[in-house]
Amino acid sequence: MVGTTIATKLVSLGHEVVMGSRSASNDKSAAWLAGLSANADKASAGTFADAATFGELLFNCTSGGASLAALNLAGTDNIAGKILIDIANPLDFSQGMPPRLSISNDSSLGEQIQAAFPKTKVVKTLNTLSCELMVEPSKLAGAHTIFMSGDDAEAKATVERTILREAFGWADVIDLGDISTARGTEMFLPLWVRTWAALGTADFNIHVVRAK
Amino acid sequence: MVGTTIATKLVSLGHEVVMGSRSASNDKSAAWLAGLSANADKASAGTFADAATFGELLFNCTSGGASLAALNLAGTDNIAGKILIDIANPLDFSQGMPPRLSISNDSSLGEQIQAAFPKTKVVKTLNTLSCELMVEPSKLAGAHTIFMSGDDAEAKATVERTILREAFGWADVIDLGDISTARGTEMFLPLWVRTWAALGTADFNIHVVRAK
């Protein structure tokens, strides 16, 4: 759902997108392609390796527990030297709702991905809200904040400018620092799921409000 | 610091406050009493047990790692039947900055306090921001949010009305549910400390922004 929402937005803006999955003939990818209304010629589907080879800029929209396996299928060499926007969270639903985190406190999924693929420029962002709001922050009433973590300053600047601000329309971006700061945004998820339950909607995000 | 900030605010509003600590002749309590400018006759200091016996409404402003010990000193019988506003966070600085959490994911300090003192009505709140903002939310530019967790609905209603709204001036209060939802606000702290480092100030809080 995160992957198709982001891919649809990028295709609507005229970007070429390859949707990767475990098999080249994935039913959900086919349904996504069939449902595109604008710029459908810009979109295609293939394996994780196909997507990784094609993309200049890569998005990890897999579930957190499967991210390392999916990126291994994408191929270490295929993702080397490229920016990987990591949106996944290490949510563990095995013990029911609300989910716990399978990684937290002394590590984060973002750090584990960066450590496993040291030649890839991992930028953790967009993992703190629902996918509809990732690509359409103007749906909410007033300013709200998106966070960013990563070791490569140039990669973060590229993601902030081209994806967050220009493509998706984010205005309030906070760069938390290196990839270890992904512990902060991933550990926000337990508050997110409880706020979601209390409000009865996923249509919310947090704004970091500063002093007058 | 949290304790004296809250106590000073409550005294300034005309409430009677006993500041509890390990010894009745605590230097910091004495300095706090000496520094009060308004309603100083409403303030006194004593042991944790003195404070627990006197107070109708109790605040746990101890450091998270010491909270259970401090509450045992306060006395199970002395805090039975009373509301305890738990502001502490299980921050562990033993491995340096930023702190990790000593309890998280499958439990929370709020739950451990409630389990240790089942006759006390624990309300977890105010643990997601600096103490100056706890008692003066109007310092920030625009609306922002305070969360609340607890098993006793009446206790939460009392805390929300008398302390959060009337005494401190909070307007946006979200009741997350039972005390297990304290996992959410306590696990927000790793994001708080990294946002604090990125902004270079503790003068911020989050606002839960809803849909238009």
Describe this structure in words.
The structure is a homodimer of 212-residue chains. The first copy, chain A, is of the alpha/beta class. Chain A has helices spanning 2-12, 27-35, 48-54, 67-74, 76-79, 109-116, 131-135, 153-167, 182-186, 189-199; strands spanning 17-21, 43-47, 57-60, 83-86, 91-92, 100-101, 121-125, 145-150, 172-177, 204-210. In chain A, the strands form three sheets. A five-stranded mixed beta sheet of chain A has the order 3-4-7-8-9, with helices on both faces. In chain A, strand 8 (145-150), helix 8 and strand 9 form a beta-alpha-beta unit. In chain A, helix 3 (48-54) packs across helix 4. The longest helix of chain A has 15 residues, at 153-167. The radius of gyration of chain A is 17 Å and the shape is globular. Chain A starts with a helix and ends with a strand. The mean pLDDT of chain A is 97. Chain A binds chain B through residues 100-101, 104-106, 139-145, 147, 174-177, 181, 183-185, 187-188, 190-195, 197-199, 201, 203-212, and chain B through 100-101, 104-106, 139-145, 147, 174-177, 181, 183-185, 187-188, 190-195, 197-199, 201, 203-212. Strand 10 (204-210) of chain A pairs antiparallel with strand 10 (204-210) of chain B.
Describe the SSE topology.
The structure is a homodimer of 212-residue chains.
Chain A: H1 2-12, E1 17-21, H2 27-35, E2 43-47, H3 48-54, E3 57-60, H4 67-74, H5 76-79, E4 83-86, E5 91-92, E6 100-101, H6 109-116, E7 121-125, H7 131-135, E8 145-150, H8 153-167, E9 172-177, H9 182-186, H10 189-199, E10 204-210
Parallel strand pairs in A: 1-2, 3-4, 4-7, 8-9
Antiparallel strand pairs in A: 5-6, 7-8
